[in-house]
Design brief:
single chain, mainly alpha, elongated
């Protein structure tokens, strides 16, 4: 995905929510938001892996495995979005 496409996607998300895209120093730090989201996905992943390992029956183990796969995919998507979005440098804030 091209950087322009990612940026227009971000602009579209703000347009859909009825708000404008925050400027540097305006509102929450996007780096912090990506970090928080990644942490939450990590917690989901850890619990799903534990359920997968401790599950006694195949159906529950398969469900937990599906959650593990989805959490890893979501973490990769967050990384891709973060890499495509132009984030203000920490010095600019």
């Amino acid at each position: 995905m091209a950087a322009g496409t990612a940026q227009s996607g971000v602009n579209g998300l703000f347009a859909q929510s009825g708000s404008r895209q925050p400027a540097a120093g305006d509102g929450p730090d996007l780096r912090a938001l990506f970090h928080r989201l990644n942490n939450q996905l990590g917690i989901i992943l850890a619990h799903a892996e534990l359920l997968e390992a401790k599950s006694a029956d195949a159906p529950n183990q398969a469900r937990a495995s599906q959650i593990v796969t989805s959490a890893l995919d979501a973490m990769g998507t967050i990384r891709d979005v973060r890499d495509q979005v132009v984030l203000p440098s920490p010095d600019a804030q």
